[in-house]
Specification:
Strand content: over 45%
Strand order of the largest sheet: 5-7-8-9-10-11-1-2-3-4-6
Order of helices and strands: HEEEEEEEEEEE
CATH class: Mainly Beta
Helix content: under 10%
CATH superfamily: Calycin beta-barrel core domain
Shape: globular
Number of domains: 1
Number of helices: 1
Mean pLDDT: 83
CATH topology: Lipocalin
Low-confidence stretches: 1-29
Structural class: mainly beta
């Protein structure tokens, strides 16, 4: 069963780097996604959804953030992933237990309400993710773009609730 969580290569950030354009980043005290979040698992349109998915974004020093994700699958098994990154599109190591498709991440924060995130595994991209804060400040939408085995892209949308 494919895992619902993976970091993915951020094509936008890579494009900024390739073009020599700096991607915007916001200081930790201004970014509105900082905090603890939980996916609304009742809205997941997948067979055998996980029991819970938790996401924590917190400041980690000057212009850096620490992101952790904890998943409890339906069978009780768990996965944990984390990274410390600068939101400038540069590569950062992704680490985790129970997660088999992450070893590098790249992230940007194009404004105070959006996090663009991605990663790769063994030199290959896995997906792109964009989190956008809702107007109420208590919900965010995650859009995930992945590719089927034949290369066809598909999109998944998740709803998160601030804890």
């Amino acid at each position: 069963m494919p895992r619902i969580f993976s970091f993915a290569v951020v094509y936008l950030a890579m494009t900024f780097a390739w073009l020599g354009v700096a991607s915007p980043a916001f200081s930790a005290d201004r970014h509105r996604l900082v905090g603890r979040w939980s996916v609304d698992v009742s809205r997941l349109a997948i067979p055998d959804p996980p029991r819970s998915v938790k996401f924590t974004l917190e400041p980690a020093g000057e212009d850096a953030y620490h992101l952790t994700v904890d998943i409890v699958y339906s069978d009780g098994s768990q996965a944990h992933g984390e990274t410390t990154f600068k939101p400038d599109g540069s590569a950062a190591r992704g680490e985790g237990e129970g997660n088999t498709d992450v070893d590098v991440v790249s992230m940007t924060m194009p404004n105070e309400r959006t996090l663009v995130m991605g990663a790769g595994y063994k030199g290959n991209p896995t997906s792109t993710r964009v989190w956008c804060l809702a107007d109420d400040g208590q919900h965010m939408t995650e859009t995930i773009i992945r590719h089927a085995a034949d290369g066809t892209p598909y999109t998944i949308t998740n709803t998160w609730v601030r804890q």
